[in-house]
Amino acid sequence: MSYTSSLYLTGAEVGLSLLGLVLLLVSAWSGPKSGRLLTVITGAALLAAAVFSAHLFDRATGDVAGRAFGDLYRADAFGSFAKVLIYLATAAVLVVTPRFFAQVGGYRGEYPVLMLFNAVGMGMMVSASDLMTLYIGLEMSSLSSYILASFLRQDDRSAEAGLKYFVLGALASGIILYGVSLIYGFTGTTNYEGIRAAFDTDFSTGALFGVVFVLAGLAFKVSAVPFHMWTPDVYEGAPTPVTAFFASAPKVAAMGMLLRMAMDPFAGEVDSWRQIVIFAALASIVVGALGAIGQQNLKRLLAYSSINNVGFILIGLAAATPAGVAGALTYLTIYVAMVVGSFTALLMLRDPTGNNLETFADISGLSTRRPALAWSLLALMFSLAGIPPLFGFWGKFVVFQAAVQADLVALAAIGIAASVIGAFYYLKFIKVMFFDEPVREVEASSPMGHWAVLAICVAIISPLGYLLTIPLGEWTAQAAASFVAAM
């Protein structure tokens, strides 16, 4: 394949990288005053990248034309679907970011540039078809994430979150890299197809250790139990817009990377890794639900909710079928809308002096002060709990259906039973917002940009979201078809 074709297939990453370099120079020359302008430009570029990725969606995965740079990068339906979610989620977070930093200070043009480079890394992660490409994308995303977590240098909590994320993230990257070295040592290649062919011929104990190390490192990136310990502290300490970003776009990228690894190079050894995924799924559901019950800080609660929801997505992966992959992608799509809407609602919770509110005590009696915001937050929490007729129910339904079709009836039954635990802390929102007496004054209005993002997210997770079931089912099925040959 010519370099021209390869550059075209990687057009989203190349374009965003070049723009990031230009914006970095603009930020250095113009100083902090350029922050809002660069945010607008970055958001527009991410939307354009999403459109371009959607344009490549129907690229035939078996066609050489879908492979770039000697099959280091694959432009297939799966990667395009994941990248559309990543770019849209990143753009949505950018819309609600500047107001937060306007109050606490410290907003600079480097912020949207870091988000841009992070998006480039995430795009490479989900489209990588070689372990080297995967690791480069992973590090590009991770390095900018460490800086974003500690972006508020004057805030001790933000600095602590950045340090914790850096130390544990470096550990996870080392685990992945060690697993990659073992796989290369026992297969002689880093290409996904070569790895799968080598495993079909001889899957030794050393290769199994390599697979386990890689999956363990990826489990850290998706914050699955038992590699979840960083999530509550980082979510609480990082600036709220950064937390919203961590809970959405990087989650899609990490889960997409995990799905591709499991269903492409490791597809022939399902029985070797399925038990690991089943344990991580059930443990994440239970630990996420139980850990959230006693939380008073809303950001920490949503961190445990994120761990809980990762468990349900992993049930789709455990099925190891096209239906399971499609179910996981469907759940991811709905989850992005739920989590972006939830954090947008938190960003709209401010006292009259502009300080952000983050605890249950802060939202007591919210229905009497901000009824529209209270009802929106209620719908989002109920959708996260999977309560019908909200669209979050459909996400759980499709992954459980895939598990049952794969003869994992016990896994589906335990997952359904464990999901009831999570309903408890979501119901707490009703009690606090609608039945408790107000404790603090709440700002009476919010910017139109925040309302627009919140309204879109609430519309998606409302019963209106079921209008998306047919096209979403077709898109996720086509994305899952990228792995049919491997499976």
TrEMBL record:
Keywords: Cell membrane, Membrane, NAD, Oxidoreductase, Quinone, Translocase, Transmembrane, Transmembrane helix, Transport, Ubiquinone
Subcellular location: Cell membrane; Endomembrane system; Membrane
Reaction catalysis annotation: a quinone + NADH + 5 H(+)(in) = a quinol + NAD(+) + 4 H(+)(out)
Membrane-spanning segments: 6-25, 37-57, 77-97, 134-153, 165-187, 207-230, 242-263, 275-294, 301-322, 328-349, 372-394, 406-427, 448-468
Record has Oxidoreductase as a keyword: yes
One BP annotation, GO: ATP synthesis coupled electron transport
Membrane topology: Multi-pass membrane protein
Molecular function in Gene Ontology: NADH dehydrogenase (quinone) (non-electrogenic) activity; NADH dehydrogenase (ubiquinone) activity; quinone binding
Family from the record: Belongs to the complex I subunit 2 family.
Subunit and interaction comment: NDH-1 is composed of 14 different subunits. Subunits NuoA, H, J, K, L, M, N constitute the membrane sector of the complex.
Name the UniProt record assigns to this protein: NADH-quinone oxidoreductase subunit N
Gene: nuoN
